[in-house]
Design brief:
The complex is a heterodimer. By secondary structure, chain A is an alpha+beta fold. Chain A has helices at 53-65, 163-179, 220-239, 285-294, 299-310, 314-320, 324-336, 342-360, 371-382, 388-399, 405-411, 420-433, 435-442, 448-459, 466-478, and strands at residues 3-14, 69-70, 73-74, 76-80, 90-94, 100-108, 114-126, 130-132, 141-143, 150-156, 192-202, 212-217, 248-252, 257-260, 273-274, 281-282. Chain B is of the alpha/beta class. Chain B has 16 helices and 11 strands. Chain B has an 11-stranded mixed β-sheet with strand order 1-3-2-4-6-5-10-11-9-7-8, sandwiched between helices. Classes of the chains: A alpha+beta, B alpha/beta.
Chain lengths: 479, 489
């Protein structure tokens, strides 16, 4: 039987505010346990939450970027349950009235087609703390540094039809929140994580199958692998005559399997009700419009512009716009160059620059070779000053901090030899020293020209213009 | 004027005496501390007496006065209901759950009063987590009414009421969620003010029902209430529900000449549930207003009979969530020797909370549960809206609403503890103002069988000035508020 896979994702992205969503405590990652939790975060008697208005602006940015409706009035609600790392015994979230809803975003599927994925809603909420079960001799430790960290929970429609589409959607949202500068998207630190609702149904069936929820998937690869393995499991269950149980499951990356979480946690009735400590969030259209006006260029628009304006292939445009920082680097390099073609600069960025960053473990905005340097360097190839090989060497010297493009070329005499009399003398020498090969060429072995050019380049320590050497050698050999 | 003992004076009189250097804050504080030591064993009005700190604050107040930077409240000894967090001092909320809780911070209104220079004598007893109308649910035992030690002082601010009525402090703070200031004020012959919801900050006031809770005062006079509220009121950036409207000058406003007021009387308040003599005392006080030039007319509060059932859905719902933080993990009572997490929670909460608190947590959890939320919680919110609209309609025709504060005078300790519904009905006249968020007061208006009873006045949103002024002018022409229980004269 043919099966159709139906997936919806709930992505939790940590908003990049300095302080927490309802208190003034810092959100910085990695502090010693319980040093960034104030009385509000600790749920002390008598304390009250006060909304950090920055999160409202961030949520509106996300909503505008995904064609959502921005709710003029949204309401914080309490989600009630007991757990030691949930200090108040309830999480403040949004339930019936989320801040943005009914949007969509485009992804490119595994078949290369553009597909629109619905975004049901995105709502604001606070994160819980962490329970630490190791090294407390049978007890659990509680770290409340994370308690009260602002999250935007982004809920998709069940529009995704494969693990690859789920991965593409998650990458797209990840790229977007970083473009919008509303999240650092750091998956290792848990700033961007995802739950997947997965079900299968016979192809052509219109009602949904019973779904399971895969919890806390914190990498693109795990999302795809977890969904693949869960889909296989569900199909096996049904084909063996069983039925899928609606439950929450955990993905074990080491064993590449999913397994049910304790069912006790399933039985929760969260008893949502509006939080009487917080006023409804009222958003005026003036605020929305001023945020709309301040939105940066978004990935899809930038990609289209790069292809059009710089004459790049879709692939190049895609790679160069994968982050706003990389795109900025490219555009700065292009602006700094006067002769070089954007395509040539694109090749350098995707080749040498990225390779060097990977080697050095740096981000693009930390690149040792600045965008302006790169533009100047590629210019030197375009105007014939440097050969490709020499340009490579200069790049390495720039990376090592040995000077500017001009100073390196000048101090090391790296300038390409383009003086025709000098090249003619050089070529004559090479032919005199390699008579056998010269004769082979005259006898019709065209290939040997490569060897002769190589000898000339070597003799010039790579500085001769290879194009000119080639031409002069051919002319001398024909005489 | 009659020469009164120091502890029978109003805050206004004490403030004048301090300003005139007739007495020092130190002397005043020592006098009250002496009375607490001598008399509180019977009354049980205080959970904690902060003698040492009070004397230090009194000395500082005297220095401040000598330095010329005193406020009207500098050196005035008051007590705080033990629901307000006070830095470095046990803040129990009348519960075993918080018997070991020493607050690391001050409630906003505590800080404001401290900045003005008041002297805190101690923390007063209360119904556990402010849930009760008789002060019998306190972990620290019942408070006794100074007018009759066999009777309740009302609740939940019963300790504050008994302390002021018995002259153990000059005035006290309280909180009012369904009548917890006005009802004890009525039963102990005091003036109780519950301001508009949001007029005074809730930050640091331990939450019972967040959409209803409001801080206020228990004092000997309306002028005293104005004096304290002048400092307590105002916006607080730590409380999103506090109101940003500027605080009027209540103290000046109440002294301005009497204007003709239209006073509305909801006739359905005078039903079978209201004690006949209590009703007569309330009617007589309406005559006083009429003589002052007020027009008395009847008003309809069509849905006010729904107040008690609505309240006992909304308040427990919010309480069930507000009290979830008492889990033994970070502060407060913690059960020993539990084998797993669930047992730890269950035993901590079973041991830490008393019966009435448990009853309300269960009720609240029930009305918020899947399948019951629409039928109870949402329905109650709709009815709450209707009640608020009734008041709004009534205030289109009248300036104030007047009626009884309670159905009866103080009842004997133990009489109603076995019958929660009977106990809840004690707040039948007061709950409406909480549901609608309106300012309201209770002022003494007579005696029934030697026990004080109260007149309730309710004003429109933020009309505390009008409310206090009416009460003040009433008190200029009556002396019910100057009566003191004989044993505490």
């Amino acid at each position: 039987m043919d099966w159709e896979i139906v997936i919806g994702l709930e992505i939790h992205t940590q908003l990049a505010t300095k302080s927490k969503i309802f208190s003034g405590a810092s959100t910085a990652y990695g502090a010693p346990p319980n040093t960034q939790a104030c009385l509000v975060d600790l749920g002390y008697p008598g304390v009250l939450p006060v909304l950090n208005e920055q999160v409202v602006v961030m949520a509106i940015k996300f909503g505008l970027a995904t064609h959502c409706e921005i709710a003029p009035r949204s309401v914080f609600a309490r989600k009630n349950y007991f757990y030691p790392d949930l200090p108040k015994g309830y999480q403040i979230s949004q339930y019936e009235l989320p801040i943005v809803h009914s949007g969509h975003i485009d992804i490119v599927t595994e078949d290369g087609e553009v597909k629109t994925i619905g975004i049901t809603r995105a709502h604001l909420e606070e994160d819980a703390g962490k329970s630490l079960h190791e090294s407390f001799h049978g007890s659990s430790g509680i770290d409340l540094n994370r308690a009260g960290t602002p999250l935007l929970e982004i809920v998709s429609e069940p529009d995704l039809r494969s693990a690859a589409q789920a991965g593409a959607y998650m990458r797209k949202i990840h790229e977007l929140v970083r473009y919008l500068e509303i999240s650092d998207g750091n998956m290792q630190e848990g700033s961007f994580r995802c739950d997947a609702n997965v079900s299968v149904r016979p192809a052509g069936e219109t009602t949904l199958g019973t779904r399971t929820e895969l919890k806390n998937l914190n990498s693109f690869r795990f999302v795809e692998k977890a969904i693949e393995i869960e889909v296989e499991r569900q199909i096996d269950v049904i084909e063996d005559g069983g039925s899928v149980v609606q439950e929450t499951r955990l993905y074990d990356a080491d064993r590449n399997e999913t397994r049910p979480m304790r069912s006790k946690e399933e039985a929760n009735d969260y008893r949502y009700f509006p939080d009487p400590d917080l006023l409804p969030v009222l958003i005026e259209s003036e605020l929305v419009e001023s945020i709309r006006a301040s939105l940066p260029e978004l990935p899809d628009a930038k990609r289209a512009r790069f292809a059009e304006q710089y004459g790049l292939s879709d692939y190049d445009a895609d790679v160069l716009t994968s982050s706003a920082e990389l795109a900025d680097y490219f555009e700065t390099a292009v602006a700094a160059a006067s002769k070089a073609e954007p395509k040539a600069i694109a090749n350098w960025v995707q080749g040498k620059v990225i390779a060097a960053l990977n080697e050095d473990g740096l981000e693009i905005d930390e690149s040792k070779v600045t965008a302006a340097d790169l533009g100047a360097l590629v210019d030197k190839i375009a105007d014939g000053t440097l050969s490709g090989k020499l340009a490579n060497d200069v790049f390495d010297m720039l990376r090592a901090g040995e000077g500017t493009v001009d100073s390196i070329i000048e101090e090391r005499g790296l300038e390409q030899i383009t003086d025709s009399s000098a090249i003619a003398a050089l070529c004559a020498n090479v032919l005199a020293g390699n008579e056998a090969q010269a004769q082979q060429f005259r006898d019709g072995n065209e290939k040997v020209i490569g060897f002769l050019v190589g000898q000339a380049m070597k003799a010039s320590q790579g500085k001769a213009n290879p194009q000119q050497v080639n031409e002069v050698l051919r002319r001398l050999l024909a005489e | 004027m009659l020469k009164r003992a120091m502890h029978e004076k109003t805050l206004t009189e004490l403030s004048d005496a301090l300003a005139a250097k007739q007495i020092s804050a130190r002397e005043l504080t020592e006098h009250y501390l002496g009375r607490i030591e001598q008399l509180d064993a019977d009354l049980n009005a205080f959970v904690t007496v902060t003698a040492e700190q009070a004397l230090a604050q009194a000395n500082a107040a005297d220095e401040r006065r000598a330095g010329g930077t005193a406020t009207a409240l500098t050196g005035i000894p008051i007590a705080h209901k033990d629901i307000f967090c006070t830095t470095g001092i046990k803040t129990s909320c009348g519960s075993r759950m918080l018997d070991n809780f020493v607050s690391p911070y001050n409630a906003s209104i505590v800080a404001k009063l401290e900045d003005a220079g008041v002297v805190m004598l101690g923390k007063t007893n209360m119904d556990e987590f402010a849930m009760g109308s008789s002060n019998e649910t306190s972990f620290y035992g019942p408070v006794r009414n100074p007018w009759d030690l066999e009777r309740v002082p009302g609740g939940s601010s019963g300790g504050s009421a008994a302390a002021v009525a018995a002259g153990l402090c000059g005035g006290a703070t309280g909180t009012d969620t369904g009548g917890s200031i006005r009802q004890p004020a009525a039963l102990t012959g005091l003036t109780g003010l519950k301001p508009t919801y949001g007029r005074a900050s809730r930050y640091g006031m331990i939450a019972f029902a967040s959409s209803l809770d409001q801080a206020g005062t228990l004092t000997r006079s309306a002028a005293d209430a104005a004096l304290l509220m002048q400092t307590m009121a105002g916006f607080d950036a730590n409380d999103s529900t506090s109101l940003a409207d500027p605080v009027p000058d209540y103290v000046t406003e109440i002294e301005s000449p009497w204007e003709k007021l239209r006073i509305g009387v909801p006739e359905n308040f005078f039903d079978d549930g209201l004690d006949a003599e209590n009703a007569a005392a309330v009617r007589a006080s309406l005559d006083v207003f009429e003589k002052l030039g007020a027009t008395i007319k009847s008003v309809q509060l069509e849905h006010v009979h729904l107040s008690v059932p609505v309240y006992y859905v909304v308040a427990p719902a919010e309480a069930s969530s507000n009290l979830s933080r008492y889990d033994g993990v970070r502060f407060g009572h913690r059960a020993e020797g539990a084998d797993d997490l669930i047992e730890f929670y269950m035993r901590t909460r079973a041991e830490g909370f008393g019966a009435e608190v448990k009853r309300r947590i269960l009720t609240g959890t029930y009305v918020l549960s899947a399948g019951y939320y629409d039928a109870y919680y949402l329905q109650a919110q709709k009815a709450r809206q209707l009640i608020a609209e009734d008041f709004k309609r009534a205030f289109a025709d009248v300036d104030l609403i007047a009626g009884p504060t309670t159905p009866t005078p103080a009842f004997p300790i133990g009489q109603k503890v076995g019958d929660p519904i009977e106990m809840y009905l004690n707040d039948i006249y007061t709950i409406g103002a909480n549901l609608a968020g309106l300012p309201a007061m209770s002022i003494p208006c007579g005696f029934v069988s030697g026990l004080p009873v109260g007149l309730q006045l309710i004003a429109p949103h933020l009309a505390e000035g009008r409310l206090l002024k009416a009460a003040h002018h009433f008190q200029l022409h009556t002396d019910w508020h100057r009566q003191v229980p004989e044993a505490y004269a």
